[in-house]
Fold Protein containing Penicillin-binding protein, transpeptidase domain protein.
Amino acid sequence: KSTFTCDGQEKVGGFTIKCHKVDGHGTITVKEAIAESCNDYMMHIGKLLGAKKFVQYQERFGFGTKTGIDLPNETRGLVYGTDMGSSTLATNSFGQNFTVNMIQMVSGFSSLINGGYYYEPRVVKQVVTSDNQLVKNYSKTLVKQTITKETSDYIKECLRSVVTDG
């Protein structure tokens, strides 16, 4: 429940990167930062994590790698490595300057709110004949746990505050 003071901008790597609230949000918690979409706070978190840990989190949530979904032509997306500069880390920390495909985003986000469980994404749940006879059933395949249940519960609380308080 640490706080950070958003003054509306950060000077990073020779650049001034602004928060959308030009005058700043003032002193806020991470929950408030998520609710208010505070870029300044996210840059602060990115700096605390560092590039190595940030990239590890991206990998944990499946960014930069194919998900293996049962669809053709999936892309990996474009993410930076641990050698990214400080301004790249700053903008990456609030979701800019890298790309993910929609399946990566949905899969990663789903693991945030379902207790931290990352499942293999699927388009097809089952195959049935025209007279509704089951031909094949595809069960859920747990790939990994991205975060703890406690962290997932807190993220859900923060996301709820986006709607109720943001």
